């Protein structure tokens, strides 16, 4: 066991934005000790070579990937890797007694056929995949607490589903009318060099991508919506790249079954639905969320409006895509898995202004 009884944890894929967010959060978490950082292209380098600003508090090298060594030193392993790599490692780590939290899409799907149709790959891990819990604590808290393998929810799905869930669970909308218009900062594209993420390309511009159900987060959103509604649900999801570093704002539109519902009715329903969810913050009527409010936190701010002219509800959701949409969500899941307070070690005060 780690220092002072802390749980020893490791990160595979520590060099990316998700990895460095995990490092920051884990170093400040009172229940864990960060003992391993793993990678391939950066193996052998001090972590401070990649992130010099953390040299004063992270004295670890990036190590080669050896599952036996990882399992011998870590009780918990975070996999912060591109899609298609985690499923090659997770089964062995779980078999060796590790709790595994995957930040990629590999274990997010209830049906592996859906995963393969969108991401490809030859999956030989169906037995272990069937034990994975979908890592969105506000919806699947009990399953997460009992699981050894978590497929942490994606950033767009997190913002979208937290906005939509009460409406679908309570049958308040015509599900086929749901439209999600979402916008993300450039850090959602990762740390790799990509032309569309260059400052000269992204700055002073706003544009959609993955239009017409082509974005890989679409089936992830739809599977959870269907689970909540109790029948198959299709949504119209359009993501946009916006010239800022962090944050996602999802605006959801849907037609109400009962046009007599007003904003105050829905606020009451949402507050009841999220009464045990400490990171979901419902805003008062007439106040709408901004991404800056969530920056650096594990919070999701939600605002609601009703348009009586169109009988539509409009729900707006703002998160930090790197925290509640990625690393913070994973740590929130770990807290549940370990039986700790769900909020332990997770920031709720944002960077402002």
Features:
single chain; 353 residues; alpha/beta; seven-stranded parallel β-sheet; seven-stranded mixed β-sheet; globular
Description:
This protein has 353 residues and is of the alpha/beta class. The protein has helices spanning 17-27, 47-50, 67-73, 90-95, 112-119, 126-129, 137-146, 155-169, 199-202, 217-229, 263-273, 291-294, 323-338; strands at 7-12, 32-38, 62-63, 76-79, 99-102, 133-135, 149-152, 179-184, 207-208, 236-241, 248-255, 280-282, 300-307, 312-319. Strands 3-2-1-4-5-7-6 form a seven-stranded parallel sheet, with helices on both faces. Strand 12, helix 12 and strand 13 form a beta-alpha-beta unit. Helix 1 packs across helix 13 (323-338) and helix 7 runs parallel beside helix 13.
Summarize the structure.
The chain has 353 residues and is α/β, with parallel strands linked by helices. It contains 13 helices and 14 strands.
Number of strands: 14
Which oligomeric form is depicted?
A: single chain
Radius of gyration: 20 Å
Compressed to H and E, one letter per element, the order equals: EHEHEHEHEHHEHEHEHEHEEHEHEEH
The low-pLDDT segments are none
């Amino acid at each position: 066991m780690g220092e002072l009884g802390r749980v020893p944890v490791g990160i595979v894929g520590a060099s990316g934005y998700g990895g460095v967010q995990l490092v920051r959060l884990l170093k400040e978490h009172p229940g864990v000790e960060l003992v391993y950082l793993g990678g391939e292209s950066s193996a052998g380098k001090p972590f401070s070579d990649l992130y010099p600003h953390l040299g004063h508090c992270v004295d670890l090298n990036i190590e080669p990937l050896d599952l036996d060594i990882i399992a011998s030193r870590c009780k918990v392993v975070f996999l912060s890797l591109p899609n298609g790599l985690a499923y090659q490692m997770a089964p062995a780590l779980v078999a060796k007694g590790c709790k595994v939290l995957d930040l990629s899409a590999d274990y997010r799907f209830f049906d592996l056929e859906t995963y393969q149709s969108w991401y490809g790959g030859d999956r030989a891990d169906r037995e272990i995949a069937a034990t994975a819990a979908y890592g969105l604590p506000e919806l699947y808290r009990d399953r997460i607490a009992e699981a050894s393998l978590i497929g942490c929810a994606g950033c767009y799905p997190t913002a979208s589903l937290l906005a939509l869930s009460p409406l679908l669970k309570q049958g308040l909308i015509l599900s086929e009318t749901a439209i999600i218009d979402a916008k993300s900062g450039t850090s959602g594209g990762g740390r790799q060099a990509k032309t569309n993420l260059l400052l000269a390309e992204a700055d002073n511009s706003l544009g959609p991508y993955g239009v017409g159900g082509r974005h890989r987060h679409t089936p992830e959103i739809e599977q959870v919506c269907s689970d909540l509604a109790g029948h198959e649900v299709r949504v119209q999801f359009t993501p946009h790249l916006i010239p800022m570093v962090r944050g996602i704002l999802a605006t959801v539109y849907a037609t109400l079954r009962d046009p007599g519902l007003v904003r105050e009715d829905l606020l009451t329903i949402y507050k009841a639905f999220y009464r045990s969810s400490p990171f979901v913050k419902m805003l008062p009527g007439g106040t709408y969320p901004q991404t800056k409010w969530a920056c650096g936190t594990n919070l999701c701010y939600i605002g609601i409006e009703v348009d009586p002219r169109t009988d539509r509800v409009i729900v707006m959701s703002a998160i930090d895509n790197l925290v509640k949409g990625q690393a913070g969500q994973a740590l929130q899941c770990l807290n549940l898995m370990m039986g700790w307070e769900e909020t332990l070690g997770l920031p709720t005060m944002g960077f402002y202004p």
